[in-house]
Design brief:
Pathway: Lipid metabolism; fatty acid biosynthesis. This is Beta-ketoacyl-ACP synthase II. The chain is an alpha/beta fold. It has 2 domains: 368 residues, Thiolase/Chalcone synthase (Peroxisomal Thiolase, Chain A, domain 1), CATH 3.40.47; 32 residues, no CATH class. The chain contains 13 helices and 15 strands. α10 packs across α11. The longest helix has 19 residues.
């Protein structure tokens, strides 16, 4: 009989369902096949004009009916599809989930189609007065609802029958991992036996592209899109904006075993530390990231020598990759040059609010399938970053524990430690 409590006497949290959507496709099977084959989902942007833009590529999800209908609708659909896969795999009823919902999603912003619905061509109207008059005349609530940060989670809660007030959060690039952390903590506190954690982001809009470009954060390698994202390489020049979703069904191990669920993995530990150095840049000494990694290891009850693989944040920006190497080398010491550390973002791009959840899903699959996905486009190693990035080709390996890193703009750092088996 497996021990049902962790080293701190709290309930062990198991994963019983996983769902994924990225630019590589819908569902775990298609994503895993493409990921382990080293296939890239990065492609030219066709959703909006890119003339005169420095970056003209992305990892947008362009194959769903809602892909051209605005960020809010697409984010909802991405979340629903991933959650449906996860809930079905867990063997639960999609209309009666019976636990809380934690959703990571992008900040709310009116899509252009909604802005046009508030537009009136009478040139004599003053802007604010025109907006109010037209808004009062609208006969539906669609535009209003899409301006509410919690609207997507509210719809998901109705769709899946979750309990309590659904939580919506946005902690930049750490959001998806934070949604999982909140689910883990709720189960550990005894507030519920199961939780649905989702990270979803369909906000690769023209505005987002321009804003990140102004920060010099995006790659401008447009000629060969699939080669643009190159984490830890010497010639890396920025991340690739992308969309996607990841969903996990989390349960106490006791509740999962009692109902005969298949255990897909264990959430051993969560670490979270804030970085108040800059709005976008990480602290140069990497101390908040170091502290987040160490907090996750401590929460998991594991030492530095007990992690088999690191699913890196690995954005492909010059500064972030350098900082992540510094933080990992500080924590893991001499092991850093030989332990496998790869980046899914080399193939799917940076899915922003969804990234932590998507990468947690891939980390769990890495352990279950005994295959480590590669870091593709690693053709020009950076001599200042000496890592085993599993270059260009997958690697068969027994992986019992994974550290998955998420370091966000604005200073949010969240790290997850996952295991293949219970303690």
């Amino acid at each position: 009989m497996a021990n049902l409590n962790d080293h701190m006497g709290k309930p062990i949290v198991a994963v019983t369902g996983i769902g994924v959507v990225t630019s590589l496709g819908v569902g775990k099977a298609d994503n895993w096949a493409a990921l382990t084959a080293g296939k890239s989902g990065i492609h030219p942007i066709t959703r909006f004009p890119v003339d005169h833009l420095n970056t003209r590529i992305s990892g947008m999800v362009d194959f769903l009916p809602s892909s051209s209908k605005g960020a809010s609708l697409l984010t909802y659909d991405l979340a629903e599809i991933a959650a449906q896969e996860a809930v079905a795999e867990a063997g639960l009823k999609s209309g009666d989930f019976g636990g809380p919902l934690f959703l990571a999603s992008p900040p709310v912003e009116l899509d252009w189609s909604e802005r046009f619905s508030l537009y009136n061509s009478d040139k004599h109207d003053i802007g604010a007065e025109r907006l109010l008059r037209v808004a009062r005349g609208l006969k539906e609530l669609d535009v209003f609802e899409t301006t509410q940060f919690g609207s997507i989670a509210d719809r998901l809660a109705d769709r899946f029958g979750t309990r309590g007030l659904p939580i919506t959060l946005s902690t930049a690039c750490a959001s998806g991992a934070t949604s999982i952390q909140l689910g883990v903590e709720a189960i550990r506190r005894g507030e519920c036996d199961r939780a649905l954690s989702i990270g979803a982001d369909g906000s690769a809009t023209a505005e987002a592209l321009i804003r990140f470009s102004l920060l010099s954060a995006l790659s401008t390698h447009n000629d060969i899109p699939e080669k643009a994202s190159k984490p830890f390489s010497k010639d890396r020049d920025g991340f690739v904006l992308a969309e996607g979703s990841g969903a996990l069904v989390l349960e106490s191990l006791e509740a999962a075993l009692t109902r005969g669920a298949t255990i897909l993995g264990i959430l051993r530990g969560c670490g979270e530390k804030a970085d108040d150095f800059h709005r976008t840049r990480s602290k140069p000494d990497g101390s908040p990231a170091i502290a987040a990694v160490r907090a996750a290891l401590a929460d998991a009850g594991l030492g530095e020598d007990e992690i088999d693989y690191v699913n890196a944040h690995g954005t492909s920006t010059p500064e972030n990759d350098k900082m992540e190497h510094l933080s990992l080398s500080t924590v893991f010491g001499e092991r850093i040059g030989s332990m496998p550390i790869s980046s899914n973002k080399s193939m799917i791009g940076h899915t922003l609010s969804a990234a932590g959840a998507v990468e947690a899903a891939f980390s769990l699959m890495t352990m279950r399938e005994s295959v480590i996905p590669p870091t593709i486009n690693y053709d020009n190693p950076d001599p200042a970053i000496v890592l085993d990035v599993v270059p260009n080709q997958k690697r068969n390996a027994e992986v019992g524990t994974v550290l998955s890193n998420s370091f966000g703009f604005g200073g949010q750092n969240t790290c997850l430690v996952m295991a293949r088996e219970p303690v």
